[in-house]
């Protein structure tokens, strides 16, 4: 087993992503979204937090268009993750790190979020997640009791990644070919 530091693992995953075409990443994204839609937790959820994907992340666009749910998206303001409601006709602004962020109403009823779909650089079979290193999700997730689903491509799922005490574990991790439950 090869063990990477967080910095090395981020570089390793970045290199791996270059080996796949945008079309292949999109196909895998669609497979992951189909799996999510088939989950009972998705089907019963009324309020779902997703994310607007960067080009190298699992694309959640087909989940964003779900009409029967309150859809929330994160934005970064003053070094914190804030949550905004998403409407199909929303305007977006280029936010931190080039991510298209919603401009809708701030959502503060965090205890009503049923499900959160979370990106990551890497995940492991122990339900650990490694993000981009800013800690936004690790500071935000303890404020909610929502089911946490980490999504990634198969090559982003490691046997073991370095985790800290403050890192929040996922309840479920989904790749195009596997699902891991806590």
In short:
The protein is α/β, with parallel strands linked by helices and 182 residues long.
In DSSP terms (H or I, runs of 4 or more residues), the helix count works out at 5
Specify the helix fraction band: 10-25%
**Alpha-carbon Rg, integer:** 15 Å
Strand content: 25-35%
Output the structural class.
alpha/beta
* Uncertain stretches: none
User: What's the N-to-C terminus distance?
Assistant: 22 Å
Number of E strands = 12
Index terms:
alpha/beta, seven-stranded mixed beta sheet, three-stranded mixed beta sheet, 182 residues, 23% helix, single chain
Explained architecture:
The chain is of the alpha/beta class and 182 residues long. Helix content is 23%, strand content 25%. It has helices at 6-17, 22-37, 40-44, 61-64, 136-140, and strands spanning 47-49, 70-77, 80-86, 92-94, 100-102, 115-118, 122-124, 129-130, 147-151, 157-158, 172-174, 179-181. The chain has a seven-stranded mixed sheet. A hairpin with a 4-residue loop joins β11 and β12 (179-181). The radius of gyration is 15 Å and the shape is globular. The relative contact order is 0.18. The mean pLDDT is 91.
């Amino acid at each position: 087993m090869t063990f990477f530091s967080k910095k090395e693992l981020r570089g390793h995953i970045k290199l791996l992503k270059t080996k796949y075409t945008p079309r292949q990443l999109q196909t895998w994204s669609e497979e992951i979204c189909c799996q999510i839609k088939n989950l009972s937790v998705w089907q019963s959820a009324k309020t779902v937090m997703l994310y607007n994907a960067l080009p190298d992340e699992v694309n959640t666009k087909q989940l964003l268009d779900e009409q029967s749910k309150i859809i929330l998206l994160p934005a970064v303001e003053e070094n914190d993750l804030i949550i905004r409601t998403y409407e199909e006709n929303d305007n977006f602004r280029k936010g931190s790190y080039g991510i298209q962020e919603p401009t809708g109403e701030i959502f503060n009823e965090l205890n009503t979020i049923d499900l959160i779909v979370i990106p990551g650089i890497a995940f492991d079979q122990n339900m650990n997640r490694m993000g981009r290193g800013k800690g936004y999700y690790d500071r935000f997730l303890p404020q909610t009791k929502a089911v946490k689903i980490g999504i990634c491509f198969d090559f982003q799922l490691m046997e073991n990644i370095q985790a800290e005490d403050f890192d929040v574990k996922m309840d479920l991790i989904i790749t195009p070919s596997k699902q891991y439950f806590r």
